[in-house]
């Protein structure tokens, strides 16, 4: 069974390195639907073997591939994940060998635990999530499907991060806080209170911010 990486941007190279470090050998990259740009024939020494919206070139119904969706944009990653499942492909977890995962932690299908990340005791991490480089997710956290925890973010104990929510680079979240579905915590924010679904917060302490001022997702 072959393994493909969905995505051809910067985070795709991060995922490739993590897979190789853990002994995996991906067959190549798949261009995601939402890109309409010209790309070279290869990336980081691997071929770009097809497009997500034209699976005839790379999906073999007799030998379904495994996949990892390497897209930092949460909605794009959700869309690609669901399309791959619909094609009968199997999601694969990526855990960099330098990550630390403590006892009782559960990690869902297709989730990526990047280099230097720390996952605490009895953490529950859902499907298709990115826990990025050197992020710290402390004991009893619940990180729900399709969320993103950026490099260097720090989550205290018993934090809940909702579906599709985004925690920015270097943000700190106090213990027991809930970040609602599809909410955004900006880079460097310090969150002392719950964040409502879809709300964007920034600053120290974190407060609601104007629409469109969040950091740009990795793709």
Fraction in helix: 10-25%
> How does the overall form come out from the CA principal axes?
globular
Unreliable stretches covering 5 or more consecutive residues: none
Average pLDDT taken over every residue: 91
Per CATH, the superfamily of the largest domain is Hexapeptide repeat proteins
Largest sheet geometry = 8 strands, mixed
User: What is the CA–CA distance across the termini?
Assistant: 26 Å
For the biggest β-sheet, the strand order reads: 7-10-13-16-19-22-24-25
Radius of gyration, taken over Cα atoms and rounded to an integer in Å: 17 Å
Helices, by number, come to 2
Assign the CATH class of the largest domain.
Answer: Mainly Beta
Question: Can you lay out the helices and strands and say which pair or pack?
Answer:
Blueprint lengths: L2 E4 L3 H12 L6 E4 L10 E2 L2 E6 L14 E4 L4 H13 L3 E2 L2 E2 L4 E2 L4 E2 L4 E2 L4 E2 L4 E2 L4 E2 L4 E2 L4 E2 L4 E2 L4 E2 L4 E2 L4 E2 L4 E2 L4 E2 L4 E2 L4 E2 L8 E3 L4 E2 L11
Parallel strand pairs: 1-2, 1-5, 2-4, 5-6, 7-10, 8-11, 9-12, 10-13, 11-14, 12-15, 13-16, 14-17, 15-18, 16-19, 17-20, 18-21, 19-22, 20-23, 22-24
Antiparallel strand pairs: 3-4, 24-25
